[in-house]
Amino acid sequence: VMPMQAPPPAPAAAAVPAALAEMSPGAPGEAPAADGKTVSAPMVGTFYRRSKPEEPPFVEEGTVVKAGDPLCLIEVMKLYTTIEAPADGRVVSIAAEDAALVEFDQPLIVLEPI
Predict the structure, then answer these.
(1) More confident residue, 59 or 30
(2) Domain enclosing residue 40, as ranges
(3) Residue 86 lies inside a defined structural domain of this protein
(4) Quick one: which H or E segment has residue 19?
(5) Contact 25, 102 (CB under 8 A)
(6) Domain assignment present for 17
(7) What is the secondary structure of 71-112 as a DSSP string?
(8) pLDDT, averaged across the chain
(9) 24-58 pLDDT, tens per residue?
(10) pLDDT > 90 in the chain, percent
């Protein structure tokens, strides 16, 4: 019969640097405009700025869009969902990197009303 031993102590949680803990998801050091509209990811998936690698991006910073215009794609298990502009506006910033994994409700694009 083998004597029972206590389980090893749990590892201590890694400390998160204060500067990192204060950062919001999205572009580093960038906050959406007070009167802007943030378009967030409706699902977890891969963010794409263009429909095909050889195509230009749907939008760039400064692009004027109308409600319903395509802004980007999110791919989940080979199924592509087009993310459309919720209202007329101008693209202020693009917070996600092309071909990067995005989380649910992660800011993707900030629009300002025009």
Answers:
(1) 59
(2) 35-112
(3) yes
(4) helix 18-22
(5) no
(6) no
(7) EEEEEETTEEEEEE-SSSEEEEEE-S-TTEEE-TT-EEEEEE
(8) 82
(9) 344 443 444 457 899 999 999 999 999 999 999 99
(10) 68
The two three-digit tokens of residue 113, written as one number: 């009303």
Instruction: Look up residue 11 and give its two tokens.
Output: 């590892």
Q: How many residues does the chain have?
A: 114
> Would residue 66 count as lying in a domain?
yes
Which CATH number covers residue 81?
2.40.50.100
Q: Is residue 106 part of a domain?
A: yes
> 91 vs 7, 34, 96, 108, CA distance in Å?
54, 14, 13, 11
For residue 38, what are its two tokens? 């943030």
Total domains in the chain come to 1
